[in-house]
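Protocol step 4 of 5: obtain the predicted structure for the target chain.
Materials: sequence only (see below). No template structures provided, no constraints applied. The aim of this step is simply to have a reference model before the mutagenesis design in step 5. Sequence pasted as it appears in the construct record:
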Amino acid sequence: MIVGRKDELLLLRQLMVSERSEFVAVYGRRRIGKTFLVREAFANKFVFHHTGILDASLKEQLKEFRESLYSAGMSRTAMPKTWGEAFHLLEHHIETLQAKKKVLFIDELPWMDTPKSNFIRALDHFWNSWASARKDIILIVCGSATSWIISNIILNYGGLHNRLTRQIHLKPFCLRECEEYCQKANLGFTRKQVMEAYMAFGGIPFYWSYLIKGQSLAQNFDRMFFSSKGELTMEYDALYNSLFRRPQTHVKLIEALATKRIGLTREELLQATHLEDNETFSKALGELEQCDFIRKYQCFGKKTKSATYQLIDNFTLFYFKFMKNNVHSDTAFWTSSYQTPLHSTWAGLAFEQVCLQHVNQIKKALGISAVVTTAYSWIHRTQNPNDKGVQIDLVIDRNDDVITICEMKYSGSKYLITSDEDAKLRNRREVLIRETKTNKSVMIAMVTVFGLEKGGYANDIQAEITMDDLFE
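Step 4 output (structure tokens):
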């Protein structure tokens, strides 16, 4: 069962009619479905398919590579001693094949690059001296260690520089795709339940595959997150260790960002983590952003140096909120916490996160999909310790002379704008206009689950967006 990925499938299948050899890197975070996508695109019909081995020695890697050659139909041969010899064996084997297009799929490529193995040099030579000179090779590589793929293949400035002919950055599913998955799996969830699952673990396909038909969402959460052998109980440690070879810096950054919902600037991160301001720090920040764990955003009206980094990975946020401190190992934690103030507080913040992940859907609901826009967050702090200032999580600066302030509110029924809430909305709008000195029209849009309660202060809102709009 494959859901979504239409553009990616089309791109991969079009390679079969290409008039040149193609070198493709498929990358994205753990459990995003890279291997599944490639297998589905080519119906598992590869002339050569190999998977690297985690934490194996060079000798073990070469031995397994030879076994993969045997599985592909190569005659028995002596053990290659280097990656150069191994790739020459692959060349000789492919030259014996008659297929019009020869698809080579190497999975977990980073694991093959053991210390002092000269793996990258051998891969470089294989592609540049042999494969690229032909017109019938489709070489597809991917791996869990996304940072390695980005550094050594996509941003390689050596022999592989600009050698990739295609790259696919596999992104998490959106709400609509997750709903499609639930329908195909016959889970029987409502849209609100689909959204709550998304609030907990985002659009990571493999996480969704753990949901069991016949169990309520709360029962699924208790099993997946809080039971001793739950599918996601140990996922946090595995997640960062699989993506980054030396994840210590990455984890420190994530732990710091988990304490501040609105995010931290670079200087604030350095203070919070006590890390040195060096290339390792910068690289880790960049890799976390490339792997969709954090986002870097500008505050509306502020200079580039004020850029803020915010943790946006739903599963990691859920882990720090509920799993990390589940010291009593309560296996029915979610069922007993459901619809309590603890759950409501989390749901409100998590709903805002989902909205930020669906800005394109919000723009569509506003009728401005074709308008050039920039999405910001905005924070105004004062020197007065009694004044909490103003924070707006989503400001859409539009090219049609309008700024839209998006207020995101989670509730189990239609949302009622009280007189106090109306006063807060008006104040945020007035402060934004005053502090940014904008000449644009500033409008307020409410993003809620089921819409606004009619009458009263709802009439003062310029646009209304509901959960259904987020599924578009």
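Step 4 remarks: The chain is about 40% helix and 15% strand. The chain has a mean pLDDT of 92.
Proceed to step 5.
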